[in-house]
Amino acid sequence: METLAKRLKQARKSTGLSQEQAGDVVGLANGTISGYERNYRDPDTQTLFELAELYEVSIDWLLGRDSFQQENADLTTEMNKRLKQYGLTQSSLLDIERWKRMGEKEWKELEHYFKYITDTAQHGDD
Questions:
Q1: Could you give the residue ranges of the DSSP H alpha helices within 1-126?
Q2: Which of 11, 19, 92, 105 is the S-S candidate for 30 at Cβ 3.0 to 4.6 Å?
Q3: pLDDT tens sequence across 41-61
Q4: What is the dihedral of CA 61, 65, 70, 73, to 10 degrees?
Q5: CA distances from 73 to 15, 62, 69, 109, 115 (A)
Q6: pTM of the model
Q7: What is the separation of C-alpha 123 from the centre of its chain, rounded to a whole number of angstroms?
Q8: pLDDT for 86-126, tens place per residue?
Q9: Handedness of CA 18, 20, 24, 29 (dihedral sign)
């Protein structure tokens, strides 16, 4: 499935993850991820589900049955560019050790910001 291989690579890159990082999250060697992206092998159903979830795309899109994800991929790419400006990647946002080092003040600021984001997403620019 050439489409699957191409889309797996595109989705991984749009999240800013290396093959090694993606493999670590889903419990696979980076060589296995490389094999999927080079169309040497296909992931099993569970792995496909885990990769789709990790990359925040649908399985239908990965399999070439839905082209809607391109808009989301473009948005993800833009978000990754903005994160990079601050020395971050999506995977670094999941770095538990960084979260553990935050103090009470940082947690309050983050909570305020998350509330702003969710309120804006729910209500738009009303």
A1: 2-15, 19-26, 30-37, 45-55, 59-62, 69-85, 90-93, 96-100, 104-123
A2: 19
A3: 999 999 999 999 898 888 888
A4: 10
A5: 8, 12, 6, 29, 24
A6: 0.56
A7: 25
A8: 877 767 777 778 788 888 998 888 888 888 888 887 776 55
A9: positive
- CB–CB of 7/56 below 8 Å? no
What is the C-alpha to C-alpha distance for residues 55 and 71, in angstroms, rounded to an integer? 14
Strand blocks (E) in the chain: none
Closest by CA to 43, choosing from 56, 28, 58, is 28
Tokens for 115, please give them: 């509330």
DSSP one-letter code for 27: T
Calculate the CA 17 to chain-centre distance: 7
